[in-house]
Design brief:
It is a single chain. By secondary structure, this protein is α+β, with helices and mostly antiparallel strands. It has one domain (about 10-245). Helices cover about 10% and strands about 30% of the residues. The protein has three helices and ten strands; from the N terminus they run ααβββαβββββββ. Strands 1, 3, 6, 7 and 8 form a five-stranded mixed beta sheet that branches. The protein has a five-stranded mixed beta sheet with strand order 2-10-9-4-5. A hairpin with a 2-residue loop joins strand 4 (about 160-165) and strand 5 (about 165).
């Protein structure tokens, strides 16, 4: 969830950091709309589950300095920052997109390879040992309870994803919680605004989608969601990407 004040990858992609909880989805949900372009929630992609990818997504986002963090990006200029698909010598065939913590509509442009799947949160949240209240927690149990409580405030009817103008459905089945009480690293200038950077432990919860590799050409991907209750009710994620997909 990118938190408003802190809903950063709440994207909730909140400065607060974002959400997750694995649920199953009836096969019929994937028979129409844009779902042919979406991996089903029970599938493993490149050997990892949705929940595992959501955790890795947070570790990626939190490690990037705030001044070039894709979540704070208003144009897409930082889209390629620290992408696992660009890792050497062992690239990972998954490209991450970020949400936004501004609460305002954001439009970005990005170049992606047709060999990469595309993973992003609709809206999510994380709670950690390095966050300020109300996202601060001290151990795995308190962090899980914190992330779950904020994720429960997401309005399922606000979730949305469209690929080239065609909407996906069954998004209520794409909620995932991080499987571990995971370690993350913060640079000195970080989106949590934690003094000095360093390390911390977190859990996350929220809604995520993994797109199958898109064919070469220009594509639009729009996604988002909103908090319908709680102290941040009304916080909305609304992100549009124009993706140039290369062979």
């Amino acid at each position: 969830m990118n938190r408003n004040p802190k809903y950063r990858g709440l994207t909730f992609a909140l400065s607060m950091a974002a959400l997750i909880l694995g649920l199953s989805c009836p096969p019929t949900v994937f028979a129409q709309g844009a779902n042919s372009a979406v991996f089903a929630p029970g599938q493993k992609i490149s050997g990892s589950s949705y929940a595992q990818w959501s955790q890795a997504w947070w570790q990626w986002l939190l490690a990037i300095p705030a001044n070039r963090n894709p979540q704070n990006d208003t144009s897409g200029q930082f889209c390629a920052t620290n992408q696992p698909a660009n890792q050497s010598p062992t690239p990972v065939p998954v490209w991450y997109l970020a949400g936004s913590s501004s609460g305002q509509p954001v439009t970005r442009s990005c170049t992606v390879s047709s060999t990469n799947s595309i993973f992003f949160p609709l809206i999510n949240v994380e709670c950690s040992t390095r966050d300020d209240p109300p996202f601060h927690c001290t151990d795995e149990a308190s962090c899980r309870a914190c992330a779950k409580s904020f994720a429960n405030e997401i309005g399922v009817d606000t979730l949305n994803v469209s690929i080239d103008g065609v909407a996906a459905n069954g998004l209520q089945n794409f909620r995932f919680q991080s499987p571990d009480f995971f370690l993350f690293t913060l640079p000195p200038n970080n989106i949590l605004k934690a003094p000095g950077g360093g390390t911390g432990f977190s859990t996350s919860d929220g809604y995520y989608v993994m797109l199958k590799p898109l064919p070469p050409g220009t594509h639009t991907v729009q996604f988002g969601g909103a908090l319908s209750s709680g102290p941040f009710a009304g916080f909305t994620v609304n992100v549009m990407y124009t993706l140039t997909v290369t062979p």
